[in-house]
């Protein structure tokens, strides 16, 4: 007899594995593209594609079935109202997995999982200017914090010298 061949366990028992899949589905539906390990992406694809296929009916029953598997109202609404409409004519294969190499820490194979009609957001000039302003503010705050820490360090060292001389 061959046990545990139906799905990946990811070294977790039933409850934590179910929570992991639910979280990945929520993230993928919200962001439309996420980076995760290759085995998790392959398992995630099954769950997302089934949910979108169920959501194509658009009925109250379909919504309830999706809510049973993925109990996040915003996720269910986006699956039924947005994704199912976008993929209405498509018979399946709503996601794409792109391998991106290995993770530095443990050499785990990494991949992007995204919807097939995903387009990365365009970064315009206004975004660039706002980003440069934010980075400049962060640098100035960091330099102020560093100066304050140096001043406090000198004060503590001075008090320590006085105590040591006595």
Description:
By secondary structure, this protein is α+β, with helices and mostly antiparallel strands. It folds into two domains: 102 residues, Alpha-Beta Complex (50s Ribosomal Protein L17, Chain: A); 46 residues. The chain is 61% helix and 12% strand. The chain has five helices and three strands. The chain has a three-stranded antiparallel sheet. The protein is elongated, with a radius of gyration of 25 Å. The mean pLDDT is 91.
Integer count of domains: 2
Strand share of the residues?
5-15%
The number of helical segments is 5
Number of strands: 3
Which strand order spans the largest sheet, edge to edge or round the barrel?
1-3-2
Oligomer category: single chain
